[in-house]
Every structure is written in structure tokens, then in C-alpha cells.
Amino acid sequence: MAPYTPPTAFARDLRIRGSIAPGYDVFIIVVTVVSVINWIFMILPLDLGGDARELLIFMEPILTVILLLDFGMRLRRARGARRQYMLHEGGWLDLIGSLPYGRVLRLFRLVRVVRGFQEFGWRDTVKWFFANRAQGILFLVLAMLIIVLEAGGLLVLYFEAGAPGANIETGGEALWWGVITITTVGYGDFFPVTAGGQVVATVMIFSGVSLISIFTAWVASTFLAPGASQAGGGPAGSDAVVAAPADGADPSVLIRDLRARIDELEALVAKPGAPGR
Known about the structure:
- This protein is mainly α.
- It folds into two domains: 1-131, no CATH class; 132-224, Helix Hairpins.
- 69% of the residues lie in helices and 0% in strands.
- The chain contains twelve helices and no strands.
- Helix 5 (91-98) crosses helix 6 and helix 8 runs antiparallel to helix 9 (171-182).
- The chain is globular and about 70 Å long.
- The two termini are 39 Å apart.
- Mean pLDDT is 75; it is low at 1-17 and 228-248.
């Protein structure tokens, strides 16, 4: 009889399709962790209340879309080795785990994303964040945005539901209120009336202002230095030319880019029917 292999060991054996960037990996890790925690809360016999459970259900499509986009990006980066990625590197786990009814497989995805994140190491990760400050902080703020949106909705429901004069009493209303508050739109159709709810609203407003400011800085840095943003680890075409690093650029970024290109060339050469085989 074959020895039992723990699921986490199986997940570690499946190589993820390259780390895209440390900041991006942190964002995907946060999204995956939040989705797994929501799934655990939904299956455990906990008295969350119908309103809180409704908010968790409404959050699922948002997390699902993010994870499906991540799967599509990794599949696109596989290029000539997409079959290998899907069958031998756990791509099918990424796909099924991104769907609402395959949330248990997100545990495998989490292990593999963490492992891919560790390819950089803490020292190179810190260097990347210093070299790509706008992009790195943007990913961190997006990760915090997911947490603040869900936690803020749950907290405002805790304070507001059943309070005299309250108008935020369902999960859908709390999520809608959180979105318009973070984006600083403030329609005024929903608003907290309790002291606790107003404190939560203050935190979410400041989070929204920070997000807009950092997103604006990221867009500006992308337009002002497009070559630097491409050197940060984004996917490149097979016919792209490797540009020389700018003055002061991190050499490790160029090395990782060259390694990725070499892996792509090796995958193309290894394909059956490739020239020279």
C-alpha cells in the first residue's frame, strides 16, 4: 500500500507558474485567505446571523472574479507550456479552486502561492518594494481594501442592525454602503447612526482616500517611467527585446526576467515537434 501523502505535501510538489511580483503575490495570498476564512465561517455551525452570512455570500463573487483573473494571467504567462501547467503543475486546481463550488481547493492554491512568493526571499522582496514603491504600495492597499470592505461591513452590521433609526440592516446594504464610502462617493442613502458605526465609517473613508491617492501615484509613475514598470516582473512577449537596466535599477529584477525568458525557451524546445527535434 502506498504511503499516505498529506494534501499540503501534494500542494508543495505542484510548482506554481512563476511568481509575478512580490506585491502581487501578497495581494493574491490575502484574497485567498479571506475566501478560505469565509468558507470556514459558512460551513461551521456558527450563529453569525442572517445579515452577516448574507454579506459573506455577496463577497464571494468579488473574490471569485479576482482569483479567476489570477488564473487567467498565470495561464497566459505559461505560453508554450500551458498543457504542462494545467495537467502537471496544478493549473486545474487553480481553475476549480477559483470557482465558488471549489473553495476547499483554495487551500492548495494558498500553499502554492506562498511557496512561489518565497522564491524571492525576504531580502529580494524588500528590495522589490523599494524599487517599485508605487506598485508595491498599491497592491498592499488593494489587499487592505478587501479586508476593510468585509470587516467594515460586518462591524457596521454589528453596531447598526436593530439600532433605533438605523438604515443599514442587511448584508447587501452594508456592502453597498461600504463601497460608496470607500470610493468617497457618499450618496447618503445609507449612513450609520450609532457611535460604533460612525467610527467604522471614519476608518473606511480614510482607507478610500489613501487608495485613490496611491492609485493616482501609481498611474503617474507608470506613464512617467514605462520602462521601469515593465522591468518589475510583468509578462513579456517571446519576441520582446530585453532592455538595458536604467541607472540605479535593481540587477536582481533583470536576472529574474532573464531566467523567466530562459524557462520559456526551454519549454518551447521541449515541446514535441519543435524545430531541431
